[in-house]
Structure formats: C-alpha cells, structure tokens
Design brief:
Elements: E1 23-24, E2 33-34, H1 57-61
Parallel strand pairs: 1-2
Length: 77
Amino acid sequence: GNRYSQAMNTVTRNADNGFTINVNPEGSGLNGIPTGFTGSAEGASFSLTLRLSNPDEDTYENLDSIALPTVTKEGCS
C-alpha cells in the first residue's frame, strides 16, 4: 500500500518491544515505508523525520538520557 509513516498503533513490535522500520524503494519488509525510487534517477530524495507526539513527562525531564531510535544504512544500490 501507500504507507508513508508508522505510528505506535501501526508499527509491529519486536519481542523486546522495540521495532525496526524498513525504508526502501518498494517499502518491503516488516514495517516498510517506500521511498518511491525506481532506479531511473540519480537517487530520488527522501527524508526521515522522528516526531514524538505527547511523550511521557519523563521524556521532557530526561532529554539528555532518553534512548532515541538509530538509523542504520544497510545497503544502497
């Protein structure tokens, strides 16, 4: 489908309650989001944005120590 985001009520969680979001041209894989890149251009632009809507009070009080998601580039073709 045409999914361009994931939210706490749409993402499939791992056994440890974390999650992985796969960003690739087709949006394949668990929690996939498509970039739309077809291979016909010199790299279609896309951006990733993390939005925390209504986080717990602890988030505001501990901004320096909260564990934020990481982005890992696993491949590019």
